[in-house]
Amino acid sequence: MKSNSQLQRDVQEELNWEPSIDATGIGVSAQEGIITLTGNVPSYYEKAATERVVGRVAGVQGIAEELSVRLPSTSERTDTDIAKTALNALAWNSAVPTDRAKVRVEKGWITLSGEVEWHFQQLAAENAVTHLMGVKGVTNAISLKPNAVTAAHDIKARIEAAFNRRVASEAREITVSVQNGKVTLRGRARSWRERDEASVSAWAAPGVTAVDNKIVAD
How far is CA 103 from CA 44, 97, 116, 123, 124, in A? Predict the structure, then answer.
């Protein structure tokens, strides 16, 4: 297991290596596998990207994200402008069902609402507005309503089959339970990225409305 100082250095070097992030305003501390991020970033896109980059570093078991978005003056936009641009971005995204996502903007913070069938559509809507200029944050309140009800044992079997196809040896250490469309994952994964991949596999099963990932990353 990496020492706190080694993990901190690895995360800092990974952030400096990533060209889409300006890491000069980001503070990093490490404590028993938990990375705490502090400071300011110039866009919401970089805030989201920072968490993804940190998650791919070996040894990271958790992330406490305390970053603030501080927009440069050239990126400031009115809520009306942001709302119009967000609606256009959703309309042009083929993965988002037409007229299924609504937008509310307050002080640069976008709140998405509406109803879709699949989690990937929920994510597509969020990704469509994350990179827009002037955005300080995004709350994805779009709800999931699958067209068909799938039995819990069918959902469980399909998720376990997906684990076996993708990470056969590790899948044996992950347990799946399902109740009323909510999937709970438990066990251990070799990395934070592998832990996230387990969530992706679970979300792809028909009938899933929520995923609670309790997997611990080594």
Answer: 17, 14, 14, 14, 14
Query: What are the contacts of 196-203 at 24+ separation with CB within 8 A?
Result: 196/55, 197/166, 197/167, 198/163, 198/167, 198/174, 201/159, 201/162, 201/163, 201/166, 202/159, 202/162, 202/176, 203/119, 203/120
Q: Can you tell me the distance from the alpha carbon of 131 to that of 75, in angstroms, rounded to the nearest whole number? A: 12
- Residue-wise pLDDT tens digits, 101-156: 999 999 999 999 999 999 999 999 999 999 999 999 999 999 999 887 778 889 99
DSSP 132-193: STT--EEEE--EE--SS---HHHHHHHHHHHHHHH-HHHHTTEEEEEETTEEEEEEEESSHH
**Which residues on neighbouring strands pair with residue 182, listed in sequence order?**
179, 210
Residue 195 has pLDDT above 90, yes or no: no
Q: 34-79: per-residue pLDDT in tens?
A: 999 999 999 999 999 999 999 999 899 889 999 999 999 988 999 9
Listed in sequence order, the residues at least 6 apart from 113 whose beta carbon sits closer than 8 Å to its beta carbon are: 101, 102, 104, 141, 142, 143
Taken in order 2, 6, 11, 16, the sign of the CA dihedral is negative
